[in-house]
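DM from R.C. (forwarded with permission)

"hey, sorry to bug you on a friday — could you get me a structure for this? deadline for the figure draft is monday and I only need the backbone to look sensible"
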Amino acid sequence: MDCKEEILFTKRMRNATREIHGVSDALINAKIGFAMTADSVWAEGLLVFYEVFQFLEGALDRYSHTLVGEMDIAGIRRKEAFEKDLTYYLGPDWKKGYAPRESVCQYLKHLKKLEAENPYLLLAYVYHLYMGLLSGGQILRRKRALLQKLKFSRKESLEGLAVVEVEGSVAKIKKEMTDAMNQIAEAVDEEVRQRLLEESKMVFVLNNNMVNSIEGAGAVVTFKVIKFGICGALVIMLFTYIRKLWTG
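My reply, with the result:
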């Protein structure tokens, strides 16, 4: 008799979010990726996500005695790194007079609602956000380092990138997070598992809302499109001119 292979819960999470995850990646790559050359936009992106990571790390502390604490893998915490980077870009007094924008408030409101209903539902956010930062952080760091080397950025060092710097092996931390998530999924009932899959989709919806609220990101994208559009047109004109010379 054939045995049906059990699908790991983390794979079910990836499958459930494949479509919205693709949309989110495209949006973040377009806005935050281009923001690599605009410090003010990069800092604003850090600022909106800082609030969410701060809330989740508070939850890891509040529920450390439950299954939630199983996801508190050594090396994943980012709150202090966010604060270090924000101090670098915005100065030591960046918290004075600061108030979260509407998209961030809505995100936090949703997280607080989930916590009141069932703290385990926050694990969808812990898993996706930290895995996303671990996966994309090293790529962003290399990209910014390259831009700085090519002098597209006025910064001469990698200061301001603490948020994507992780102590220890990224691969090891990601594996530990994946194992923990799968073990937790086995320990909860099917209703909670289904809710975790639903909230996995909401992670990217709320992320997209925050990224859309970043002022200046659209302007950076527009500038890049115009810049590369002009360069492309010049290349075509030059190619056409050379071809005419050769064909006489």
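R.C.: lifesaver. Residues 121 and 195 are 7 Å apart (CA to CA).
me: no worries. The chain has a mean pLDDT of 80.
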